[in-house]
Amino acid sequence: MKKTAKAIAETDDDSWFVSDAKIYPMATKGLFRNIKWAILFITLGLYYFLPFIRWDRGEGFPNQAVLIDFERARGYFFFIEIWPQEVYYLTGLLVIAAVALFLMNAVAGRLWCGYLCPQTVWTDLFLKIENWVEGDRRKRIALDKQPWTLNKISRKAVKHFLWLMVAWWTGGAWVLYFHDAPTLVVDLLTFTAPIGAYVWIGILTFTTYSLAGFMREQVCTYMCPWPRIQAALTDEYALNVTYRYDRGEPRMHLKEAQKKQADGEKAGDCIDCNQCVHVCPTGVDIRDGLQLGCIQCGLCIDACDNVMMKIGKPKGLIGYDTDMNIERRERGEKPIYRFIRPRTIVYVLIIGLISGLMLYKLTNRDLSNLTVVHDRNPLYVNLRGGAVRNGYTLRLYNRYKQPQEFILSIKGMPEGSQLKVVGEKTGTSNDIPVVVDPDTTREIRALVFSPKGSKMPESHDMQFVLHDPKAGTEVVIGDFFRAKGN
Amino acid sequence: MADHNKEVDQITGVETTGHEWDGLKELNNPLPKWWLYIFYGCIVWAIGYWVLMPSWPLVSDYTKGVLGSSQRAEATAEFQAAQAERAKMGEKLMQASLQEIEDTPELLEFAMAQGKIAFGDNCAPCHGTSATGALGYPNLQDDAWIWGGSLDDINYTISYGIRSGNDDERYAEMSAFGRDEILSKEEIVNVSSYVAKIAGIDPDPKADLDAGAVLFEENCAACHGEDAKGLRDAGGPDLTAPNYLYKRSLEGIEAQVTSPKHGVMPAWIDRLGETTVKSLAVYVHSLGGGE
User: Which of A28, A395, B74, B226 has the CA that lies 20 to 30 A from B58?
Assistant: First the structure.
């Protein structure tokens, strides 16, 4: 709210629009800055280099550990192979991701926004480059006010060049997840890659460059819905980056405070040095309390701690805390920190349940499978001599890396019933061998005949059995056999 | 707006727009400028788009755009590419015998897919989308075949038709025993009841079945066979089958004996070509009634 009011002051009377004041975040050092560097290196390192990790899947199959293969319609993640009909695993993953966000929020507020969000991570990287080329906050402000000297032009040019290189690499890494990475890199360099690859690299270069270079905190305040949602998910026990006003107020300059303390009057620890505001990547004042613009990256904690050390006061004037605890301290009560509470327990249970279920399903998948669809029309056909025929469309799944012969048979039909598969030899028995190519499915048409003269009921439960001789397993799919009835 | 009195909302500390509706005032929380620039950018984009791409309708035409992009041309090109791709498989179908097609999974899959679509386009109007036929149009799902249900028989019937006028057509015509006064009314009742009895339908109680049997022997057996199970070569249908081409009742039999109806199956070979007809034959055969 304060920011908006400030922005109004800078608006022309006639305009419904404002130019947001450019923010020049100052570099800082400390615990949270180090945590953020570590996360940046890990996440970007994973993103940029993961496509190059190899994973042997045998002859004729891609050996890229993480690959979304649109041509073959397969998703690969190390030992996991996802077929198009199993995209529901992705749904599970999204549910886990959502609940993990809720959990982060319940434990310590906007952990996602401050440390993990791609917007934050890339903006951090771009700020580091800017800082390195143009200097820290004050130098950058001065540089922007300067006329266009050679120094200014060259610094700006170098900065934008480096930004574009990072952005281009970001787009480049993205497309590597969809093709064999080493091959695609060569193709891209020799201009023989598919046009789509260049288009995607172009799009992502543009978005990275504009979002991390120029839009920055505006993405968080104007574009992102998460700040609005997360406000509804917090509770009084959730830790947030908090200015401990019980300790800080009344704020005043150091000399003033020393004078007042000498006189025996109350003076807060906050010396109003504005370091917390200067380091803030979104330009908010944490001393105004929990607010939409604050992504809770913890950099103001580092900045304030550094100042407190210099003036010989204890650290933690700004820290992860709750408003409730500040009020308790003001009343002279002990602060309460509760990480284990119904909300967090339920979130952890949901995450555990879904990941457990998915892991179980993934590791216990049969290498063969079968689906059955009964003909919709006609449901049954009366044949000469009183026999009845039903038609079915069957899909056989072969997850083996080799062609596989399965044995198809029926169960639950009266003696003398017959199974036929179009295009396959019918022997004397009802066990019909069907060969399916490696790593694919095959659709076949199966016909079931009730014995001549048998009086079949209107609907009769029966089963198709797919025997996998290699694994020694059987898949039994229940269906029905229809007839006119008696 | 420059003239209005700047009023600041007490609770939020935000300036109002100066507009008031029944006591409600609107806060002026301005949008960032870049929203505006994106809007201007869209306008510039639109103008560029008008120049480059087909966009404005004219009286009998439209502006083509500098790039000459045409979705119709793209669709045609894609269609031709798909046809060329299909032609490769079509070539294989041409080479293979019908039995080979059915025994080779790759060819079978293609023929089934092509046959299913060709059936829906050409055959379904008479035989039904599920090939179950209708009164006067044969059911292709069951195992009662007038002209044979083997792959070759089906292929021949589709190719040259029945009573189609093609030189190689299948042809059979039943005498109009009533209309042409070959049999008397009473004789027709007798022979119809005899056929009904064989087919498992209640005969006319007044009919003389023995006389009917003799009449059948003399007039019908030549085409329908002595056991009434039909003769393929003569095109005489199996009268004991559970499904009839026309009404399967005593009245239906009497009507057909008196003044028979004859349906026509067109010859498709010239219209669809050999590969499509082959695919159709495989598809119809695979429905389940094939022999």
Answer: B74
